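Fig. S4 source data, part A: sequence.
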Amino acid sequence: MSLSRLREKAQQVIQLHQEKLSCFICLQLVKEPVTIPYGYIYCMIILSCCCICYQ
C-alpha cells in the first residue's frame, strides 16, 4: 500500500472517530463526556446547562 493511500485511510479513521466522539449539541469533540441511555454523547457542561434550562 502506498504512503498516500495509508494517509488517506488514516484520515478516514480519524474523521470517523471524531464524528463518534462529538457532542450532539455543540458538535465539538466531547469534554468530560456523558452518555445518556440512548447512546448519545454530550459534554458534561453543556448537558448540565440544558438540564438547568429545562427545569
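Fig. S4 source data, part B ends here. The first helix runs from residue 3 to 20.
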